[in-house]
Design goal:
The protein has 109 residues and is an alpha/beta fold.
């Protein structure tokens, strides 16, 4: 399992991605790629870019990808950018209630 840091913004993205790639290579190719986002507290869109790259690598290696304990802010940001279906698959639910993850600025349809 890959563990995200408490902070993942543009400042930390390059180092975090390098660290996650190294850990991914050490895990072996038979296991699914599971990212634990539980520790993540401070993030921006760079966190999505890092996760999308790990997902891309997992797919290239023929491995399943999932995110465990996604914080509400990560889920909301993924939804805002339209990548929630890619990153937050059915077995990866936000740690907070779904109502907390909705974007209040978005008009109701």
């Amino acid at each position: 399992m890959l563990l995200l840091p408490a902070t993942l913004t543009a400042r930390e993205a390059r180092d975090t991605l390098r660290m996650l790639k190294q850990a991914l290579q050490k895990e072996g190719s038979e296991s699914a790629v599971v990212v634990d986002a539980g520790p993540l507290q401070h993030l921006d869109s760079a966190a999505l870019a890092v996760l999308l790259e790990i997902d891309r690598l997992a797919e290239a290696w023929g491995r399943e990808f999932s995110i465990r304990s996604a914080p509400a802010k990560l889920a909301a940001l993924a939804k805002l950018y339209g990548v929630d279906a890619l990153l937050l698959k059915t077995d990866s639910r936000p740690a907070a209630p779904a109502s907390a993850a909705t974007d209040q600025r978005k008009p109701a349809t």
